[in-house]
């Protein structure tokens, strides 16, 4: 049973606007969450992470929000740029382990 | 060379062949991982090595055999694979196993096709 779910397989956003990618999880033991970005023919690249003791982490144009009660996190990209077009994976792990549980990914297309 | 390097990038093999995938990391990390990504499925963790010791085998069939001779190198030996084993195999490394704030860094993967 999948513990990390990205329910939107794809998202299209206009350049300059905000992109919001969503992720839900079911395991309440998860306490570390990450977002990866993947271009075709390349491996996933780490983008940003958040610990469960926080509800927000910001790095430049990228902000991750965590809502523990709803078991939901989101990645905001603002302003979106065409180079942001890629597949974005949400991942989660628990402190007692090391295995990253990945979602299936959301393909983001930023149009000029 | 920096980062995580995987070779070969593409591999086509028959079900009776024996081949090996190689992963090398130049990040000074102590933990290394093998993942499998099949079409329309999330990345699945296969094996974890921490300081050259295997700490996780995620119910992987014995036709996949990992080897970690040192903290910088990881191999995945393949033999008598099945067509459903065709997938993208990704290697990753991290500073400490399971450490908060220690994201895993991935290689570009080996695209494996079983005939």
Structure description:
The complex is a heterodimer of chains A (112) and B (115). Chain A has no helices and eleven strands. Chain A has strands spanning 4-5, 10-14, 19-25, 30-38, 45-51, 56-59, 62-67, 72-77, 86-94, 101-102, 106-111. In chain A, strands 2, 4, 5, 9, 10 and 11 form a six-stranded mixed sheet that branches. Chain A is globular, with a radius of gyration of 13 Å. Chain B starts with a strand and ends with a strand. Helix content of chain B is 0%, strand content 56%. Chain B is an all-beta fold and 115 residues long. In chain B, a hairpin with a 6-residue loop joins strand 4 and strand 5.
In short:
With 112 residues, chain A is mainly beta.
How does the major sheet of chain B shape up? 7 strands, mixed
Q: What is the 3D form of chain B?
A: globular
Query: What's the helix count of chain A?
Result: 0
- Percent range for β-strand residues of chain B: over 45%
Order of helices and strands of chain B: EEEEEEEEEEE
Which regions of chain B are unreliable across 5 or more consecutive residues at pLDDT < 50?
Answer: none
Q: Determine the structural class of chain A based on helices, strands and strand pairing.
A: mainly beta
Topology of this structure?
The complex is a heterodimer of chains A (112) and B (115).
Chain A: E1 4-5, E2 10-14, E3 19-25, E4 30-38, E5 45-51, E6 56-59, E7 62-67, E8 72-77, E9 86-94, E10 101-102, E11 106-111
Parallel strand pairs in A: 2-11
Antiparallel strand pairs in A: 1-3, 3-8, 4-5, 4-9, 6-7, 7-8, 9-10, 9-11
Chain B: E1 4-7, E2 10-13, E3 18-25, E4 31-37, E5 44-50, E6 53-57, E7 64-70, E8 73-79, E9 87-94, E10 105-106, E11 110-114
């Amino acid at each position: 049973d999948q513990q990390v779910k990205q329910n939107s397989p794809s998202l299209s956003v206009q350049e300059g606007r905000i992109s919001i990618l969503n992720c839900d999880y079911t395991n309440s033991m998860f306490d570390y969450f990450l977002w990866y970005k993947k271009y075709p023919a390349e491996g996933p690249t780490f983008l940003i992470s958040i610990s469960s003791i926080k509800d927000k982490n910001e790095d430049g144009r990228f902000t991750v929000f965590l809502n523990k009660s709803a078991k939901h996190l989101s990645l905001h990209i603002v302003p979106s740029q065409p180079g942001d077009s890629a597949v974005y994976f949400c991942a989660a792990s628990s402190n007692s382990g090391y295995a990253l549980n990945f979602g299936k990914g959301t393909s983001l297309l930023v149009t000029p | 060379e920096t980062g995580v390097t995987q070779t070969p990038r593409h591999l086509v093999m028959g079900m009776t062949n024996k081949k090996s995938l190689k992963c090398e990391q130049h990040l000074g990390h102590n933990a290394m991982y093998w993942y499998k990504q099949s079409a329309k499925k999330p990345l699945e963790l296969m094996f974890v090595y921490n300081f050259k010791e295997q700490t996780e085998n995620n119910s992987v069939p014995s036709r996949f055999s990992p080897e970690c001779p040192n903290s910088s190198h990881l191999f995945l030996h393949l033999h008598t694979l099945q067509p459903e084993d065709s997938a993208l195999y990704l290697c990753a490394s991290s500073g400490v196993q399971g450490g908060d704030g220690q994201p895993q860094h991935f290689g570009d993967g080996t695209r494996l096709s079983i005939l």
